[in-house]
Design a protein that fits this description.
Largest interface: A-B, 27 and 28 residues
CATH architecture of chain B: Alpha-Beta Complex
Number of helices of chain A: 10
Number of helices of chain B: 8
Distance between the termini of chain A: 31 Å
Oligomer: heterodimer
Distance between the termini of chain B: 33 Å
Order of helices and strands of chain B: HEHHEEHEEHEEHEEEEHEEH
Structural class of chain A: mainly alpha
Helix content of chain B: 10-25%
Shape of chain A: globular
CATH class of chain B: Alpha Beta
Radius of gyration of chain B: 19 Å
Largest sheet of chain B: 8 strands, mixed
Number of domains of chain B: 1
Order of helices and strands of chain A: HHHHHHHHHH
């Protein structure tokens, strides 16, 4: 099963990239092309972060171990889209003009926290392969708990850049809170108890 | 000053629009269908016309809008305002005046002819357009009433109609939309009431039937679908000031030196340009400094942002 599923999901994860590449090549980005690319890549980064955070709770709830096999791939796609998002901002929006970028990172809290989220992904990417899991042992788990922080930063990034109370950031916030709550020992205990009775 | 300061080659392909302008220039008369109902002056202009920047394609000016009454996405106003009813429409001018009046939009249009004004439009979000509006100086309308000595500011209130405006069913802003100007800003010849754009009647998504345009201020100051103009003594609290006083000041003059918590105000992105086009530098008072800087003599514009 996993042999068929995994490549299929890999291709599905590439669909947002294919869509934006098509829109760029065929000039279908509308009034503000750079903003469109920024939003698209940013939105998918957040979605992949939340998807990767959903795998462990899904495993616990469904008692199906296979969910965990997709966690790394989803996390790496989050990094892939996050990097595209960052490159769009640096390269397309500011044309590698570093002064306004540094100014933004230091003075605009939503950019600071977005940038921080991307930085925090780096250790996770570097330690994502099987070899590193074996080398780091218990520490691997600790390092990868950074993903919770990345999730929080990414949602804050979205909330802080919104002009007023918008629905979309709130939906992501609710999903994030749900996913993190399901990790609490207390909740896990309740879930277990329910499945026993 | 002549109306036609553009070479047609400098303007983005808006064939209808260019043809109309050439036609008007050659014939020196007004005719046609789309604007037959409007009372338009084409002779002289009382402002510096746009000579450096291209006019934004009509398609973008009418499909990329911030008009939260119809939804918070840029494409919502165009989609959700199609059935919005703008006839009949009355505008009441009251408050600190000796003779408050209520006029229908038709009466106003018949009374005050519209002229074309090609203005830069700079949104606080860091993007800009160049739009050929049809309209008349607001002072021509305000002169219909006699303000009392107490009147210091002018408050604009937009329509409240959640049945027709689905964005108003949610507390995104404190509806109805409110804006304000100091009297001298409101009376300034650059401040116009808009009745149309690109030679056509004003589309619903752009604020029909009558909206304000204050070209040296960020776009949100230019209230849409106005139903009430009130002379007041105290500085009005606009909807955006109410939503976030640290981000949106009363004046909200375009100012590259005063940063917004989220958007760089030093530069702006030009709507309709391609993905590889760089941002352009934002100009103080959106380039209208010669005309309006005097209004703010002696004021600290960092404090009064």
């Amino acid at each position: 099963m996993i042999r068929i599923f995994k490549p299929t999901i890999f291709v599905l994860c590439l669909v947002p990239f294919i869509i934006i590449a098509y829109q760029i090549l065929f000039n279908k980005l509308g009034a503000e092309p750079v903003k469109q690319v920024t939003h698209h890549t940013g939105e998918w980064t957040l979605r992949f972060i939340l998807l990767s955070l959903a795998m462990t709770p899904l495993k616990n709830i469904t008692k199906i171990l296979a969910w965990i096999k997709y966690r790394r791939m989803l996390g790496l796609f989050a990094f892939f889209y996050g990097t595209l998002h960052l490159l769009t901002y640096i390269g397309l929006d500011y044309q590698f003009n570093l002064d306004p970028i540094i100014d933004d990172v230091l003075n605009k809290k939503f950019i600071f926290i977005g940038f921080a989220a991307w930085i925090l992904m780096l250790p996770l990417v570097v330690t994502s392969n099987q070899k590193m899991v074996l080398i780091l042992k218990q520490n691997w788990k600790k390092i990868h708990r950074l993903s919770y922080l990345i999730g929080i930063f990414a949602v804050l990034h979205f909330i802080w850049l919104s002009k007023t109370i918008f629905f979309e950031p709130l939906i992501y916030l609710i999903i994030l809170i749900t996913l993190l709550t399901l990790r609490l020992d207390f909740i896990k205990f309740l879930l277990k108890k329910k499945s026993v009775t | 000053m002549k109306l036609n300061k553009f070479k047609s080659s400098e303007i983005t392909p808006e064939n209808f629009y260019i043809n109309r302008r050439q036609f008007l220039k050659e014939m020196g008369i007004i005719t046609g269908t789309a604007f037959a109902s409007q009372n338009i002056i084409t002779s002289a202009l009382s402002y510096t016309p746009e000579t450096e920047r291209k006019i934004t394609p009509y398609k973008f000016a009418t499909t990329y809008n911030n008009y939260y009454e119809f939804g918070t996405s840029k494409s919502d106003p165009h989609k959700n305002s199609k059935d919005f009813i703008t006839k009949p429409w009355d505008i009441k001018i009251d408050g600190e005046v000796e003779n408050e009046i209520t006029l229908s939009v038709e009466e106003i249009k018949n009374m005050i002819p519209s002229e074309e004004r090609i203005y830069r439009f700079r949104c606080v979000e860091g993007w800009s357009m160049v739009v050929p509006w049809l309209g008349f100086p607001l002072n021509k309308l305000l002169n219909k009433v006699k303000p009392t000595s107490k009147a210091k500011f002018v408050k604009f209130t937009s329509v409240y109609d959640p049945d027709q405006m689905k964005g108003q069913r949610f507390p995104v802003l404190n509806w109805p939309y409110k804006e304000g100007l100091r009297i001298d800003e409101a009376m300034h010849p650059l401040t116009i009431m808009v009745t149309g754009l690109y030679g056509k009647e004003l589309p619903n998504q752009n604020g029909a039937p009558l909206r304000l345009i204050v070209p040296w201020k960020y776009g949100f100051k230019s209230a849409k679908a106005i139903v009430n103009i009130k002379f007041v003594e105290k500085m009005p609290i606009s909807s955006w000031m109410n939503a976030s006083p640290k981000e949106y000041g009363f004046y909200s003059n375009v100012n590259p030196n005063v940063s917004h918590p989220r958007w760089s105000q030093a530069t702006e992105r030009v709507i309709g340009e391609n993905i590889y086009s760089p941002r352009i530098k934002t100009v103080m008072f959106n380039g209208y400094g010669d005309e309006v800087a005097g209004l703010y003599d002696g004021m600290d514009l960092r404090k009064n942002f």
